[in-house]
Design brief:
With about 180 residues, the chain is α+β, with helices and mostly antiparallel strands. It is about 20% helix and about 30% strand. Strands 1, 2, 3, 5, 6, 7, 8 and 9 form an 8-stranded antiparallel beta sheet that branches. A two-stranded antiparallel sheet has the order 4-10. The chain is globular.
């Protein structure tokens, strides 16, 4: 099954809920690509030796990886971390995540500044471009295990909105002009 995305409602209720509009307004993978978001569906059962993952890492230059488990029993300061991940921010580098187990949401802004929610499930690998405003949360299961991938050494710095003066943000916004 393909990854699912949709425009979000404006409710400030529990961030872990789906927040679909009624009626639902789905967002296609093609629409996500126009925003610079790329997706692959992989077999997590063989992630340690998956030739497809190795090819993606080689082609994209993802030289570093680690694994994080986001669950109240596994992640120190769980509530604080989940709240921090949900702050709207950008990074100076692409953000690449591969869900090995569980599920979660990435929320991104479209060209009109509307929120799009991307439902990540086991096997989904996603790349968000540097400079895109986004946030992350687990869903109501409170559990995801994900591989974090980076080009070179990991940079853990997030810049909360507003960060429009950053060159990478301006470059990202300019890249949307043709799409």
């Amino acid at each position: 099954m393909s990854m699912e995305a949709w425009y979000m409602d404006t409710s400030v209720e529990d961030q872990k809920k789906p927040h679909r509009l009624n009626p639902n307004e789905p967002v296609s993978l093609d629409e996500l690509k126009k925003l610079g978001v790329f997706h692959w569906k992989l077999n997590t059962d063989i992630y340690e030796s998956d030739p497809e993952l190795e090819q993606i890492r080689r082609e994209q230059g993802y030289s570093y990886m680690d694994i994080i488990t986001i669950h109240p029993d596994e992640l120190p300061n769980y509530e604080e971390k989940v709240k921090m991940f949900f702050e709207e921010h950008l990074h100076l580098d692409d953000e690449i995540r591969y869900v090995l187990d569980g599920q979660a949401y990435f929320d991104i802004r479209d060209k009109e500044d509307r929120w799009i929610r991307i439902a990540m499930k086991k096997g989904d690998l996603i790349s968000l471009p540097a400079g895109i405003y986004h946030r992350f949360t687990v869903d109501e299961t409170n559990y995801t295990k994900a591989m974090r991938l980076f080009v070179g050494e990991p940079v853990w710095k997030a810049y909360n909105r507003p960060a429009d003066d950053f060159e990478i943000r301006q470059k990202y916004v300019a890249s949307l002009q043709g799409s």
